[in-house]
Design brief:
By secondary structure, the protein is mainly alpha-helical. The protein has helices spanning about 5-10, 10-25, 30-40, 45-55, 65-85, 100, 105-120, 130-150, 160-185, 190-215, 220-225, 230, 240-245, 245-255, 260-275, 275-300, 305-315, and strands at about 90-95, 95. The longest helix is centred in the middle third of the chain and has 28 residues, at about 190-215.
């Protein structure tokens, strides 16, 4: 089984979620509607809704309830990326101009805020205090992660621990919340939704590390943005932190700045690839995937476990 099989099994529900996303972003303001839908229409794997749906299958799966959780989590993710593009001064995402590129920073910020507000409005349908506490805490941590990324731009002396803390806040906790809230929406026992959260956390850590590896090993056509753009924008990721353990490599990487030319940046990317940093980063992502798989084994017997295992394999084998 590969990940496409998972998407085929969930196809009908994912289509309904896609339609719902478009419906909830149909703002009265024509400008807000256009800017919101512009990002939505760029597509994506909808990883968070997939994890919500799969996690809910461990309990009493009621699509009308689960749908609102899936839509809300995806909207929060979308809003964070629109805000990210302003912070990073990014002009392309998923092969399309960003909202800030097509309009401007102000429109981007208001669009992100609007999408975030809609997410919070939709999830009020979930009548569970613990679920709202989990989501609130996740959003606080996400915001802290964004601030930390701004603080640490071009900081080549930051620790790897600092990096792990940042990706936990920016990526892993939202995927953990997707799994946990999917379970809560389906009334699974507390010990089960706690395990689902742990599974999502480990899967989310691996997902972000591999994203950071792909920034160096993939192509602009596959990434939907220029290769090495994270480094150019001062976002210091795991491959960089591992590569700069070599003093000679570090002295070259420290020359990176936002005005650096393409040829010079390409040379530094190749320098990083010539070290063992990519292999070491991949090994670390594999360790997180193994931890996620171990948690999966501890979950109750359910056909959905095989689908979650397939999603782990998809995360681990994205095209380098």
């Amino acid at each position: 089984m590969n990940y496409k099989t998972v998407y085929t099994i969930l196809n009908n529900d994912l289509k309904k979620i896609e339609n719902e996303l478009e419906y909830v972003l149909d703002a009265h303001s024509q400008l807000l509607k256009e800017s919101s839908l512009h990002y939505l229409q760029a597509g994506g794997k909808r990883i968070r809704p997939v994890f919500v749906l799969l996690s809910a299958k461990f309990g009493n799966y009621n699509f009308q309830i689960v749908k609102d959780v899936a839509v809300s989590l995806e909207l929060i993710h979308m809003a964070s990326l629109i805000h990210d593009d302003v912070i990073d001064d990014a002009y392309t995402r998923r092969g399309r101009p960003t909202v800030k590129a097509k309009w401007d920073n102000k429109i981007s910020m208001y669009t992100g805020d609007y999408i975030l507000a809609r997410a919070l409005e939709i999830i009020t349908s979930l009548n569970n205090v613990e679920a709202h506490k989990i989501l609130s805490k996740t959003m606080v941590e996400l915001s802290i992660g964004e601030i930390e990324q701004i603080r640490d731009k071009y900081n080549f002396d930051q620790t790897i621990t600092n990096y792990f803390r940042r990706i936990k806040r920016k990526t892993a906790l939202l995927i953990a919340a997707s799994c946990q809230l999917g379970g809560i929406a389906a009334d699974v026992p507390r010990d089960v939704h706690m395990k689902l959260a742990k599974f999502g956390y480990y899967a989310g850590m691996a997902f972000q590390i591999i994203d950071d590896i792909l920034d160096f090993t993939s192509t602009e056509a596959k990434l939907g943005k220029p290769a090495g753009e994270d480094l150019l924008q001062g976002n210091i990721t795991l491959p960089v932190l591992l590569a700069i353990k070599n003093p000679d490599v570090k002295s070259q990487i420290e020359k990176v700045n936002e005005n650096m030319g393409t040829d010079e940046l390409s040379a530094i990317i190749q320098l990083i690839k010539n070290t063992d940093a990519i292999n070491k980063a991949t090994q670390i992502s594999d360790l997180y995937l193994q931890k996620a798989d171990q948690v999966l084994k501890d979950l109750p017997a359910n056909p959905t476990k095989k689908l979650l295992e397939t999603m782990l394999k998809f995360i681990g084998k994205r095209n380098f």
